[in-house]
Amino acid sequence: MSDPRLASLRAALPGLRLLTDPADLEHYGRDWTRRWTPAPLAIALPDRVEDVQGIVRWANDARVAVVPSGGRTGLSGGAVAANGELVVSLERMQRVLGVDPVDRTLTVQAGIPLQRVQDIAREHGLQYPVDFAARGSASIGGTIATNAGGIRVLRYGNTRAWIAGLKLVTGTGELLELGRALIKDSSGYDLRHLVIGAEGTLGIVVEATLSLTEPAPSGQTMLLALPGFEALMAVFALFRARLRLQAFEFLTDVALRHVLAHGGGQPPFAQPAPYYVVTEFDAGPDAEAEVLALFEQGLQDGVIVDGVLATSQAQAAQLWRLREGITESLARYVPYKNDVAVRISAMPAFLAEAQALLAREYPQFEVVWFGHIGDGNLHINILKPDAMTQADFVADCDRVTKLLAELLQRHGGTISAEHGIGLVKKPYLWSTRSPAEIAVMRGIKAVLDPNGIMNPGKLFD
Description:
The protein is of the alpha+beta class. It has four domains: 4-90, 2-Layer Sandwich (Uridine Diphospho-n-acetylenolpyruvylglucosamine Reductase, domain 2), CATH 3.30.43; 96-211, Uridine Diphospho-n-acetylenolpyruvylglucosamine Reductase, domain 3, CATH 3.30.465.10; 219-327, Alpha-Beta Plaits; 335-420, Alpha-Beta Plaits (2-Layer Sandwich), CATH 3.30.70.2740. It has 15 helices and 16 strands. The protein has helices at residues 4-12, 22-28, 49-62, 114-123, 140-146, 153-156, 192-195, 231-242, 253-263, 287-301, 313-324, 326-330, 347-361, 390-410, 435-448, and strands spanning 17-19, 42-45, 66-69, 86-89, 96-100, 105-109, 163-170, 175-178, 203-211, 219-226, 245-252, 275-282, 306-309, 336-341, 366-372, 377-383. The strands form three sheets. A seven-stranded antiparallel beta sheet has the order 13-10-12-11-15-16-14, with helices on both faces. The chain has a five-stranded antiparallel beta sheet with strand order 5-6-9-7-8. A four-stranded mixed beta sheet has the order 1-2-4-3, with helices on both faces. Helix 1 packs antiparallel against helix 3, helix 8 (231-242) runs antiparallel to helix 10 (287-301) and helix 13 (347-361) packs antiparallel against helix 14 (390-410). The radius of gyration is 23 Å and the shape is globular. Keywords: FAD, Flavoprotein, Oxidoreductase.
């Protein structure tokens, strides 16, 4: 540890654990994007709020940038440290600070994994309903930083809806308590919501009070095979009108092939279809008869070609694996990812134009579609051909993303539905936010982070 800046940090916080081994710098310096070469100054692993405050104060004095780090499962480069930043990992801050069964809240340190939060809630007869495939790795702080969504937004909304309060170490090292788990509070600005989705650019979330709710009603899971892209919205409308949907997810035949190849499973139907839907809905005495009637109607209308209704939890898990296993099955390709959203009412027109755009601009690439039709969120993964260099691939994808951003702007959509802006989508923020909005965002950052040390270069320069 020859860098004099690290010597001064060690002197300021003698008990702080610091990592400087090259393998650690690489591991903690990047997220799932894998596009940038990690080059952090060091990795700090605090285990107390006071240490986080001390780190930030030191960083201001030393003029060292800070990159907050959770599970690093992000897909937009929001946790990348490629320019000599100090990574502040909260993985040692995983304590459960309190469960209140009356208020139905759970207070935790920000480094705790989402899966553990879900398990704790379940142990108390409640649930924390934010859920997605990376639940075992993603930290609560990271989900707050990106306002994470997932597979049950249709029923429960994004992370924002479940944050009753949080504690933030600002860019000056001050500790703010934002929100106090009050159901009603009209005492001025709710600064808590500025922090949710801010990607660590305003400070470091160190604690969170999470709202819990009743366990989800028992659900039934069904896999549907669809004849074409245009059938997606028709089937969604059909099922939503008569069932209490918990989730409605779609994937293409290309996505299914990758999942089956990665996991060694068998095709779910004798005849393949171009599109599939995994849907979950409240079970009940009449639910099975209702869904079978809807299935028959879909067959008659020509918007469904086949389907299977899970008859056990094991079978339901197998069907969900077809959707949740997509990201893992594509990881080895290091795909270029688009994470977009439009209003549900705008979805049919947008889908048609987006499909035409990508078919025209990506004739040489394999494109894998999947997403959350029920909340207007689409994930588009472009796979690099083996013979193409990474630089040429990214340049071509960036060119098309600009066209996609223009399309989203026309439809009133967003270039980032649930993964954040980070480094990947920073060039396209204009398509989602007006110049006046961006100016206000810059002003807010200047107040909470006057020296610009908190995750610089993310969101905007």
